[in-house]
Amino acid sequence: MKSVDTDILILGSGGAGLFAALHAHKANPGLSITVAVKGLLGKCGCTRMVQGGYNVALAKEDSVERHFMDTIEGGKWLPDQDLAWKLVTLAVERVKELENELGCFFDRNADGTVHQKAFAGQSFDRTVHKGDLTGIEIINRLAEQVWARNIARLEEHRAVELIKTRNGDSVSGVLMIDMRTGEYVFVRAKAVLLATGGGPTMYKYHTPSGDKSCDGLAMALRAGLRLRDMEMVQFHPTGLLAGTHTRMTGTVLEEGLRGSGGHLLNGAKERFMPQYDPMAERATRDIVSRAMFSEMKSGNTSPNGGLFISMKHLNQDLVKKQFRGMVERCADCGFDLAGGLVEVVPTAHYMMGGVEFAPDCSTGLAGLFVAGEDAGGVHGANRLGGNGVANSTVFGAVAGDSMAAWVRNEAMREPDRAAIDAAIAQCERPFKSGTRGDLEPLREKLYDTMWEKVGIIRDAAGLEAALDDLRSIETELRACSLGDSNRSFNLTWHDWLNLESLAAVSRAIATAALARRDSRGAHFRSDFPDSGALESSSFTSITLDGRVSMRPVEFTRVRPGQSLLKNAA
Fold it and tell me: Which listed residue (25, 66, 258, 523) is catalytic?
């Protein structure tokens, strides 16, 4: 086993990971900083896939208080208010840093001000963007800056376990697999950042790429950390539905389409959203997704079993200009976005749940920090479109600053060697003798279980059945032998590891959903449809063994029935 020492180890190269690396380096250029990523830096991760934009209060008519209230009300009063306040206030600093220091070019108005477009669930048009390719612009600039600095990279290295010290009171480092060779690598670090991204790819329809498999959350559970809000899985209303023959199915057609006036139509080509909510297509994602799912369940669907989005009543040249990336993507799948109908389906998009953490990004395990989609509590029951990339960059920068300060007085800590051996033994399980199995049926079973029973609309019977299915999937997976001992670029082995992580996190989602006996935001129980009293709002907190506690939300800045806007006035 190869060993590497570094002051700071960052797991993930999305917006959170790269911002953390840059801020830690700026705080102390003498630190050794290493970014480890499953793929290639700058070419993978969820931030790169962001089409829509970045929410920030820049306009004179807008305010951070208004952005905050939209975030709290959109999250159904479940967000941690101190985290949400940090999000909306520091977003102003981060977007200026992105433009003025890192070189991002966002779209601008004729008068030179930054253009901000409409996104659902917001009381003001505050979404900064670069056409519909915002994530590529942000990641390209961040990656350039990381490459220009003395920041080490471990590319195509997969993190498999957080390794504690022998007494278990702090993190010592991370066990990894060099995917190119199959060799195990232990990276010892004074501080570790968990920024692997969420990636709810356990659902039949999902937006992230297949390499996103909730590894960070699975490792956090095994390390004894608590996860909050795990029942809150966001479905984006408009995932492209192009049939089972293409992996383009599930990819996002971003919210700006509905924000600019796009209409959702059922199989009879009739608009239906005004019947479900006064804001129609501009309602929050949870409301639109449930309305779409109800229409689909009624059987009034498109040829592939979904619905349609239509932009043809708008200016077609303007649609082609504003949404060039999506127009081209739809054309590749045989659809005319500007002048015709495109088939869509709600698609699993984002994990509002994640590791419980403090505003400085520290966790319950000394030396371990978390940021981005691995972190829970910022969004509560529903993330507003445009708040995701803001969350990653804001808390990635906070984590970088915090880790640079933390390591100043820390020494390298010796790992628990027995824990390393146990983690390697677990990774080696599929190479042991057993029943040689095909992973594809297990993956399909996971897809169906989560979509049908732990999806957009849930009930107790379905959730209990899902937990039985998930236990069966895990049992079959443990008994499955790969029949191939070659470790070098063994993608079947990594599929096995992906499924292991996804099954563990799926159990946490289903267990938390069963424990929450009300309906809030992305979590809807048909057997408990009421939201309950907002004043007594509680969030779920779950451990690896499936114990769930309901913890009261602390209304540190505003209580239900109040508004910071009134106070500010």
Answer: 258
